[in-house]
Design goal:
alpha+beta, 812 residues, 7-stranded mixed beta sheet
Amino acid sequence: MALLESITQSEPTKKLTMDEPVETLFSTTASKLVGKPINRVDGSLKVSGQAPYSAEIHLDNKAYGVLVGATIAKGQVESIDSSSLDGIPNIIKVVTDPEHFLRNSQQGTKTKAPKQGVSEIFYHGQPIAVVVAETFEAAREGAKALKVTYKDETDQAALNFTQELSNAHAVDEEKGSDKNNVQGDPDQGLADAAVTVDRFYHTSSQSNSPMEPHTTLAHWEGDKLVLYTSNQMIASCKQQVMDALDLNKDQVQLIAHYVGGGFGSKLGIAPESIAAAIAAKDLGRPVLITMTRSQVMEATVRRSNTRQRIAIGCNKEGIINTFIHDTTTSNLPGEAFFEPTALSTHYLYRGENRRVHYQMVDMNQVLSGSMRAPGEAVGLIAVECAMDELASQLDIDPIELRRRNEPEEDPTEEIPFSTRQLVACMEKGAEQFGWDKHNPKPASQLEGDWWIGTGMAAAARGNQLQPSEARATLQVDESKALGIKAVIETDMTDIGTGSYTVFSQVAADLLGLPIDHVEMKLGDSALPPASGSGGSWGAASAGSSIYLACEQLREMLAAKVGLYSDTIQLDNGQIKQVGKHDLTAVEAAKENGQAFADSTIDKISKTTGVSFSENVLEEQSESEKYNFDNIESYALADVIAGYEEQKVSAKGQIKPGKNGKKYRQSSFGANFAEVAVHKVTGEIRVKRMTGAFAAGRILNHKTATSQCYGGMVFGIGSALMEEVIHDKRDGRLCNHDLAEYHVPVNADVPQLDVILVEEDDPYTNPMHIKGIGETAIAGAAAAIANAVYNAVGVRVYDFPITLDKLLYEMPE
């Protein structure tokens, strides 16, 4: 572990690279606020309409833009007739820039702009122009009326995935999230296995469909571009804007204080952002572009459809020796992203013969990219349905089959797990759900007109850490009850996941303040850069930088009052002494006032790489003012008042390190479902679900449980209804709104029970947490599919499971 206390002239910084396991301060704080199910700190603002989303920001002289999408799937733009709008009132201008407009959105974490240039059409709905008007209504009317002439090459477009399979090509592993892998001899292992399952599974394209559509309000302050935008990752999106418009870092600022969901579709910039910037520059006034729901679905991101082959071989006792996971996905020509369906296949179950292989088909359809739990969400549908089928063949309980195939270490990388609680999740989930009443015989329970069935599936989602920075400031504030507040700053976003709340808990816990004494500033690229929201790494990464900044403040305060970092306690605005500190040789030398103390420190620093604060000796005389032998505590506000400007700041920086390579880090879980299938119509209703998940230390049990609810609901949609349908003749997206693209609504969602299995993982980060929101979706759809099989004895390999796929195979 490289743990550095780097002191700059202006701002001390605590740096941590996760090379070794670390202890966490949360077990020593006075309030133990982290973990408590407190309400969202921004909840009242949201429900009262006072939380400003990007489209609600008011700027004087604002104009409104509406994107114009191509009406062909492939070809060239020959002309755009602006005069076709001459009769429409309040139209300002048709803005075009064939060179700089974005062809499609960008993927998450990328620092370069996505594909630019819109003269050539690659998919139906591709933005090619923007109509700007004094009102949104006029701009919308103009966008609909604008006449565009094309060279139509739709007859040459790739619009039928099945027909294009023969043109599948290798993926770019270096630019993807997963890699092909072969161990042993999978084909021979499968041929020699006593029992096998070998199936193809198909999952449909899905739409991220966040509640808030993609939107950008652009205005220029001289040569500086300010974008109020709806993005999940501010730091990398800023770099994408810089690259797209050839601007430097001082010329771009992105602001996204509140984001109304993203589910991966807002990881990178979308076409409206650059169009708004260009239009605002052209007109010399602010321009707001808010995508319509149809445009969000047609021109941002979809989850790729997949064709997955799962082949499992085992002996008669169910011990797996062979696991094959081959996947073909789709994307736009020239795009490198592929759906990494086998991310957890690498380590979920044992097996000495293994293969993961990816191919991709180029399609003239909207960009495919990340959608909640990219990889596992659809990959575990195939894996866990195949495991259930294998359990049926073996006549072994599905939980027992998984228990028998628990690997002692990651079977692909041959490294240990940091923690692995899959069995515990299955057992706790089974107990809560009542799995002991599960009847493995299909079509054995009929209640009135409904067949009843139960199913389960494992869940896994890899844990990651990303570089992040944050600043923490303690300052006197007489408006607060304790006379002080903490201000936390980072460009991390809150996309509805609870960032404002859990980060406030982290800061309040470590700094010994009530939650209402913490001011959280998020979503502005002028603030220290964070990981952003995505990949289930946001809370761990940005949260760890906040943790480290607060830890640095604690150490500075300890030095100021004559304590040590392990004997200072911050409790309800008071500084107290706890425990006893064992002096190190260096500290003893300093305390004794030995002349060679500084040279000893320098030698140790060079040897160990640990840099000690240069301010310690300077502060010793000041620390003599504080005597904890006679006084129990000192007011934190009084101590901070002694600093210049009555405030003190510090930064924190977290980086991934060797732990991520030496240990397999993952969240695990288990989903259980009970369904009812109508004996005549084949209608499926989910009656109840139970999910048990282990994701390290939980920052807030209420928000974590809410995230799991969301993941399980996603599973219902993936299992039963979500399907983007493109017309195979012209590439048009047929169901491009929420009336026709079905997502689960209240009537579709039953009672959901969530169990958060206790876990502590010191290898992940200083908070010992892991991502949880995407873990809950992994395996949820498979649990429902397995319950459907148990209800009516029909296995469906083409998702979603619509009633037409059951109707002609229903039991008598």
